[in-house]
Amino acid sequence: MTDPRRHVPRTDVLLAAPELHAAIAHLGRAAIKGVVQAAQERARRGEIAPGEVLAEVRRTLPHSASSLRAVINATGIVVHTNLGRAPLSAAAVDAVVTAAGYTDVEFDLASGSRARRGQGVREALLAAVPEAGDVHVVNNNAAALALAAIALAGGREIVISRGELVAIGDGFRLPELMESTGARLREVGATNRTTLDDYASAIHQDTAFVLKVHPSNFVVTGFVQSVDVAALSALDVPVVADVGSGLLQRDSALPEEPDVQSALRAGAALVTASGDKLLGGPQAGLVFGDADTVRRLARHPLARALRTDKLTLAALEATVRGPRPPVVQALHAVPAELRARAQRMAAQLADADARIVASTAMVGGGGAPEVVLPSVALSLPERYGAALRSGTPPVVGRVTDGRCLLDLRTVEPRQDGQVVDAVRAAS
Fold first, then answer.
1. Rounded to whole angstroms, how far apart are CA atoms 190 and 165?
2. At how many degrees (to 10) do helices 90-99 and 310-321 cross?
């Protein structure tokens, strides 16, 4: 008897099939070849018939040449690090698409000569924070701090409170980051209490600056004391303030969260922040401050290694200039409106045992850990958790007390229909 595996179509024959021409042009021959080989292997194992291989290839074609998949965030965590932190606004997405081709990122169209890179985003950020003399953009906030340390404190001391020696995620710790630049840390105070006298007694001729770090991912309560930027600015050394989460100005939804504008007004020489957290833009590190100090960082040789690409510059500018990004909209969502959306969705999901429940959302991304955001969720049987994650698009909720909760504070209103369709498909 002839081995049925001999009837599996050859790779070159499948790749030449007219049905795959468009996919090869869009995704590349290598990507489609991998799909073809996976389908052939299924046929050799007897899972599908040899005559079904082409249909299996067409069924399993990826939507993109990238392995990343768009996900609907129904966790209730607004800035979800594992889901890519801030989702970009439509304006920022459009800007990225425009920047994907040839652009005038370093070119003056009027004169035909070279221009300053990122001038548009620089102007946008200075307009948003007029207290700053200048601004520089690098690839993340850790890079902003490292650049400040290397440019201003190489071989010298940085004074910092012991209560602010934070871990910044993925096992990295601030002391290790700063010491890797060649600077020396001088710790002052105690974990729970640091006074202005502690800082003053530590400052000497070898002190480069005082570093004030917002411990954004934890809260210490009880017998505590810290020194604010205004008080530190009275000392005879510059103050570098890391506000972390990326608020440019005060936000009524997060009254205790520090912001760039307030830190500069209080006297900080430099303020660093993230672009992909509460600002709601792409991953970036922002450095605001007096013009001479910022220019000193921007002209340091390391600045070239930390430079952002044109896609980031475009998305960041559109985030600052454009409409409120999804993160800001989620932070300011009104619970009554969330409930109304939940009611409309639940009415379409009667067969799925969908219930409407009160929920609590979180800021996430290492920001405002003490803030609880009242929210509303669709509650489904627990089995929906895994089924929704494996759907297209995946919907990621959270399982609590035997129920799968889809928190609507982090679901954009335009995605409500997709969530309903996903639940129906999972049923």
1. 11
2. 150
pTM score of the predicted model? 0.90
Contacts of 413 (CB under 8 A, 6+ apart): 341
- For residue 106, what is the DSSP state? T
10 Å CB burial of residue 416 (0-12, 13-18, 19+) is middle
More confident site: 66 or 35: 35
Q: Report pLDDT for 175.
A: 86
Among 77, 69, 83, 65, smallest CA distance to 394 is for 69
- The helix/strand/coil state of 175 is helix
**What kind and span of H or E run contains 381?**
strand 373-381
| Contact assessment for residue 409 and residue 330, using Cβ atoms and an 8 Å cutoff | yes
Region 394-414 average pLDDT: 96
Name 407's Cβ contacts closer than 8 Å, sequence gap at least 6.
74, 75, 76, 359, 361, 375, 376, 377, 397, 398
The CB density around residue 86, as the number of other CB atoms within 10 Å, is: 29
Q: Phi and psi for 289 in degrees, rounded to 5? A: 165, -165
Q: In 3D, which of 364, 389, 369 has the Cα closest to residue 82?
A: 364
Kindly tell me if the per-residue pLDDT of 217 is higher than 70: no
Give the helix/strand (H/E) hosting 400. Answer: strand 398-400
DSSP string, 361-377: EEEETTB-TT--EEEEE
**d(Cα 32, Cα 65) in Å, to the nearest integer?**
9
Compute the radius of gyration of the chain from its Cα atoms.
Answer: 26
